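# nightly structure sweep
# worker-07 picked up a monomer target from the shared queue
# config: single-sequence mode, recycle default, output format = structure tokens
# input follows
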Amino acid sequence: IKSMLSRTLRNFASSQASSYTPRFFTQEQIDFYNREGFVVAKNVLPKLVTDNLQNWAKQMEDLPETPGKWMKYFEISKNQRLLCRVENFLPFFQELREISYGMITDMSSDLFGEQAVIYKEKINFKFPQGNGFAAHQDQPAFVSFGVSKLLTVLLPIDANTRQSGGLDFVRQHHTHKEILPQNSDGSIRTDIEAKLNWIPLDASAGDCVFFDSYAPHRSDVNTSTFTRRNLYLTYSPLSQGSWRDKYYEEKRRLFPPECERDPTKDYSEGAKVFNVANPIK
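# output follows
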């Protein structure tokens, strides 16, 4: 029954794609996204959401490591175990679930030109002196599910600046729809990274940054005095299926949080898909 429902939804989405009418973005903004690989919507979040982002992030930071629920991942920096990421939190945070499945889904649909569906969610925590994320593309993490078209939405919780480890992007490279040669950790090969034209993209709470899954991006160490937290929502076209449940089922099996790991198992193969170019251990 579940597969039949999924197939019905995909067929419906496909039939609607040709007649889709944007609800949030102008055609000029959609054209910019398609040309550049990203677009910034400044101060678009409802005030209630913007005002509570830091509070919700703190609640997630304080959540106990609990098997089978939210998924907390850690890094080691200067011999300290630091929280690096929380995933699979939407089932437990109603307000974030409403904005993610509502307004942000609609905005993502505008950029796809058809109905979008949420694929996964995460918050990255970058504490002072926390490590950066190496240059990478998101697409390699999605190929095992056969989804060819995705976008991610960055909702800054804290100011993204050069000091706090804000993101850099490469313009227009997404149009090639190719995965660049990689280092062993899934990051873009160092010699290729050096040849790319990186531009800084700073953002603040209330903004939304939408970027294509093929768009190269990276971030540096947080040299500021505050924790830089970013919420990321990834979407795919509904016409290609609804994959969130399957994604987290596979991630728990192949690269689970530490509290769910079997000490006798090697998770290095799962890391090649679910731990691309980041400092998580």
